[in-house]
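[Automated response] Your request has been received and processed.

Submitted sequence:
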Amino acid sequence: MNNANNLIRYTKFATLIFIALVITADVFGFVITNYITRVWADRTDTFALVMLSVVFYLGTIGAYAVLISLFRLLSNMSRDIVFDKANTRLMKIIAIACALMGLDCFIGTIAWFGSVYCGVICVFMTFIILCVRAVFEKAIQMKSELDLTI
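Generated structure:
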């Protein structure tokens, strides 16, 4: 049990670091998107810069939703609240945010085709999270059935 608690603690700490990284990315977003537009996408038009900036900032909104929900999920687990409806709701928020970030990245291919890779990763993560959520829902159902038999 101690290893699980340590893993949860380290993951919560890593989540806080990622939140700080997203905040930093928000602060320097225009510089980042300018670099991506000019160097990676090899575009100099204003449309590409604006499009990738919008995609970038919409993506960071999704990242906040994912990271805050993950932190809340880990906090529940550290309090031994594991197979609970609240956790499946948090997983649903994470899955929806990942799906929307994937859509956001796919829209970004209008300005730079390289964003399709991020979109594919987001969609793949959505499916993984939905599978884990289904396992949690099944465990909750089995737990409630077991509680009724006692």
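Summary generated for your ticket: Residues 9 and 63 are 20 Å apart (CA to CA). The helical segments are 2-27, 29-40, 46-78, 85-108, 115-149.
If you did not submit this request, please reply to this message.
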